[in-house]
Design goal:
Number of strands of chain B: 20
Shape of chain A: globular
Radius of gyration of chain A: 18 Å
Distance between the termini of chain B: 29 Å
Helix content of chain B: 25-40%
Distance between the termini of chain A: 40 Å
Strand content of chain A: 15-25%
Strand order of the largest sheet of chain A: 3-2-1-4-5-8-6-7
Helix content of chain A: 25-40%
Largest sheet of chain A: 8 strands, mixed
Structural class of chain A: alpha/beta
Number of helices of chain A: 9
Structural class of chain B: alpha+beta
Number of helices of chain B: 16
Oligomer: heterodimer
Radius of gyration of chain B: 26 Å
Chain lengths: 306, 562
């Protein structure tokens, strides 16, 4: 029943460089789609903070047109009744898992409206900031990174409209670059990313390296099961057209056992796992023990082995 | 054989439905609503059309300004607090505090309408750990909201009463408001008797049939209001009451491509779409992340949000008043008369509340006749007037239902009783037209409707305020869940959860009540028999009786498939 989680997640672009070929990824997208224009990337241009400047030296008149375009795109991305409706729909369920596991791990009050007060959290592959903003509202000090410059611009533009989210730090960079900069976070979250990276074991090592001592790592992805093939690829891409064809390569999906293993090798001990199931009648997602399609794993860093 | 079975099935459904209806109607009523609801229909349609035109422009998908054009409004927003540089370093990301030094105040939630349902929402928000920090404004011009304890115990009972179901009572207990109600006049009842003028049958319900203590509690609306208000005033809760009326509301689109290129308009960008602006009659204005329309059947919020309604008026009026008996009344009574039902509900001491539905012409007669004549008419209608007393033998005993019988219900042997005589009129008589109205949407961006603003029901059901309390309870839970996962509380996707939760329940109840009204507006032999059969079945079949009582108590969603 579960449709692909990915329909929700235009996260497949981050880490573009190591990704599947662009043409394949974006072929079916409508032109005003936020992720539809995979221009050559200036990977991780960190000086783009707080400005809308692109790395290319476009004439200023062009810049204004660009800005206008981003604003329009941002509207689509954040329109909860628009093309990203399934993402908005699934988001509370993912956040519920993150809330409960992180509250337990960091001994935060689950009855607080801002339980993550004081926690540094990085959202790897933040896209338009759909996960980063709620995390900020829950009190976290959030860093959102994405390899796609446009996503970062949209995310920043949107977050700046609300004082509760305007302190999110958005960077167009990759996890590996931040590892090089020796950044550390209390919690590292990478949702729906790992199935799009070329080397998932390397990626897990980077996530682990970003996680502080006694920190937490949360990863979600698609299982490599018959049901995920049926729902995430056949149904979501070919029948329902929720996702552009070719968004996913089933063979690159990880089973929960494989994910647990590669995280373990990266010194992250998986403590909890849950599945997401979609109820087509209510149109809502919920957490479940069924990890045969979409699943999310919470692990803690095992520093002894580092 | 086959036809026989089919015949039974055909009878069964209407029968069950009619008996459910019969039960519900006995509930009671909230009558302070529903006058002249079609007034703004034409204006609304015009507005809607204008809106549709606007919404075709992509960047301006929703603009709800009453007086000014959208562009003018956008530039006028006096929101200076977050400038380009200031925004990232705003140290209180909580945004719960009103912004100081600004003529407009910012809230998390603005509840427009401080009636029973609006105040119940405020109490409910204050009672939850995740929502008690919210900064709430209540906008209502009712001067009573500024006072404390505005009711006196010795006052005669007000004619405007509500029948609170056990489910609503437990909600009011959860939000700590019921203890205030218990300090004032209220009347629990554990029995109901329903019968009709044809004398074909009757049904008597007892709370013990459903293993309950009570079937409901009749409380004056002013008691409910003052109880909720006392609680709001006592609470350690960020709230402010604005004693004024809403004049306009504007909600701007999330962002606008035409403005991002200039620095000056960045100021406006911060607020675009992230806050709703309300302007009040007293000239003040306020901003809120979420506007709750709890402003009744003629909701101004609903009108300004351009939410359309579906509904109709019945060509019936209800006369309500308080009467006194010689003895105390502990039972709720309802008799179906040719022009509509007559209900007598206990409200404590020796008083009862009367709701009598009739044609508009009759209602003007009954309203203008002398007190004595009116009392005579009531006593006549509750006794031999319009038809004989029912006897249980008319349908040939219970053979008709032997196939369905799960056991004779314990109150099946209760005999038909004549209600206690009415001896004195204790209030003036008021007449209200009846109508039904339902909002097509309960939620749009940053706006949500609760209570009568979302649905005005046939007032005789007493379900009006119960449905409203159900809305308040659901909305506060949805807001709490949203805050738990860091959602902006004005997001449509969040508010639609509330709509999905409440709309089916409310529509079911409205359909049941409307169907009931229609079933009884016809005096036609076979239909009378069917109604009688329904009563009879409801009286004798214990599981059915139990499920009817549970539904009428507000504890079950589906009356037919318990």
């Amino acid at each position: 029943m579960a449709s692909s989680k990915l329909l929700s997640q235009p996260r497949w672009h981050r880490l573009l460089r190591r990704n599947l070929p662009n043409a394949r990824l974006f072929s079916g997208l409508p032109s005003q789609h936020p992720v539809s224009v995979p221009e050559p990337q200036n990977h991780g241009d960190p000086k783009s903070n707080n400005t809308f400047k692109t790395a290319s030296s476009a004439p200023s008149s062009l810049k204004e047109a660009e800005l206008a375009k981003f604003a329009a795109i941002s509207d689509t991305w954040w329109d909860s009744e628009g093309p990203f409706k399934p993402l908005h729909n699934m988001n509370p369920t993912r956040l519920a898992f993150i809330r409960s596991t992180l509250c337990r791990h960091f001994r935060k009050d689950p009855l607080s409206a801002r339980p993550f007060e004081g926690l540094r959290i990085i959202d790897v592959g933040c896209g338009g900031g759909i996960l980063s903003e709620p995390l900020a509202r829950m009190g976290a000090i959030v860093t959102g990174i994405d390899a796609v410059e446009k996503n970062i611009k949209i995310a920043r533009l949107h977050a700046n409209m609300d004082p509760t989210t305007s302190n999110i730090e958005y960077c167009c960079t990759t996890a590996e670059k931040l590892v090089d900069e020796q950044r550390k976070f209390d919690a590292v979250i990478a949702l729906e990313v790992i199935e799009h990276v070329a080397d998932s074991a390397e990626f897990c090592k980077s996530l682990s390296a970003l996680t502080a001592h006694e920190g937490a790592t949360v990863v979600s992805t698609l299982n490599r099961s018959m049901r995920s093939y049926a729902s995430a690829i056949v149904a979501a891409e070919y029948l329902l057209h929720w996702l552009p064809k070719g968004t996913h390569q089933w063979s690159s999906f990880l089973t929960p056992e494989e994910l647990t293993m590669i995280l373990k090798r990266a010194s992250v001990d998986v403590k909890e796992m849950a599945g997401f199931v979609f109820n087509p009648i209510t149109g809502r997602w919920s957490l479940s023990d069924d990890i045969s399609v979409n699943y999310i794993a919470f692990g803690t860093k095992d520093t002894n082995e580092e | 054989m086959k036809t026989c079975v089919d015949g039974r099935n055909m009878v069964a459904l209407p029968m069950i439905l009619a008996s459910v209806l019969g039960e519900l109607i006995l509930g009671g009523k909230t009558v302070d609503i529903l006058i002249g609801l079609q007034r703004n229909l034409i204006d609304q349609q015009k507005k809607k059309r204008a809106q549709q035109v606007r919404s075709s422009i992509p960047a301006m998908n929703r603009i709800l300004a009453t007086k000014a054009g959208s562009n003018v409004y956008r530039l006028r927003i006096p929101w200076r607090s977050f400038s380009n540089d200031a925004a990232p370093k705003l140290s209180s990301p909580n945004a719960g505090d009103p912004v100081k030094g600004s003529e407009a105040q910012q809230y998390d939630i603005a509840i427009v309408g401080g009636g029973m349902v609006g105040l119940a929402l405020a109490c409910s928000l204050a009672s939850k750990p995740l929502t008690k920090h919210l900064n709430v404004a209540i906008v209502d011009s009712n001067p009573a909201l500024g006072r404390k304890n505005f009711i006196k115990k010795d006052d005669l009972p007000d004619a405007r009463v509500s029948t609170i179901t056990p489910a609503a009572i437990s909600f009011l207990k959860d939000i700590n408001a019921w203890r205030f109600v218990e300090q004032h006049r209220h009347a629990y009842f554990d029995q109901m008797q329903v019968w009709d003028y044809t004398g074909l049958s009757y049904a008597k319900y007892n709370a013990r049939d459903a293993d309950k203590e009570i079937l409901g509690c009749v409380v004056e609306n002013k008691v409910l209001l003052s109880s909720l208000l006392s609680h709001v005033q006592d609470m350690d809760f960020l709230k402010k009451i604005h004693p004024s009326r809403l004049t306009s509301m504007s909600i701007l689109p999330n962002s606008s491509s035409s403005e991002v290129d200039s620095t000056s308009s960045m100021t406006a960008l911060f607020t675009h779409g992230r806050l709703a602006k309300l302007e009040l009659e007293d000239g003040s204005s306020l901003y809120a992340k979420l506007v709750v329309g709890a402003d009744g059947g003629k909701s101004r919020v609903r009108e300004l949000a351009g939410i359309r309604t579906t509904g109709w008026n019945y060509s019936q009026n209800a006369i309500i008043c308080t009467v006194e008996h010689a003895v105390e009344n502990h039972c709720a009574w309802q008799r179906f008369l040719p022009s509509g039902p007559l209900a007598v509900l206990p409200i404590g001491d020796k008083f009862s509340n009367i709701v009598w539905t009739m044609t508009p012409k009759e209602s003007s007669d009954f309203k203008s006749m002398t007190d004595d004549d009116f009392l005579k008419a009531v006593n006549h209608a509750l006794d031999y007037g319009y038809g004989p007393h029912p006897t249980s033998g008319i349908l040939g005993s219970s053979d008709l239902f032997s196939w369905l019988k799960g056991g004779i219900s314990s109150s099946a042997n209760d005999c038909f009783e004549i209600p206690p005589k009415v001896i004195k009129l204790a209030s003036e008589r008021m007449a209200f037209p009846l109508s039904l109205r339902h909002a097509n949407d309960y939620a749009s961006k940053r706006v949500v409707l609760i209570g009568d603003a979302a649905h005005t029901v046939h007032p005789l059901a007493g379900q009006g305020v119960n449905l409203g309390f159900g809305d308040a309870s659901s909305l506060s839970s949805v807001i709490s869940e949203g805050i738990a996962v860091g959602t902006d509380i004005g997001e449509v996707s969040l508010l639609k959860k509330y709509e999905a939760d409440r709309k089916p329940a409310n529509i079911t109840m409205m359909a049941v009540l409307d169907g009931f009204q229609k079933a009884y507006s016809v005096d036609f032999g076979p239909l009378n028999f069917l109604r009688a059969a329904a009563f009879h079945g409801a009286h004798h079949i214990s599981p059915l009786k139990k499920s009817i009582i549970s539904y009428a108590s507000g504890e079950m969603r589906l009356p037919l498939f318990a």
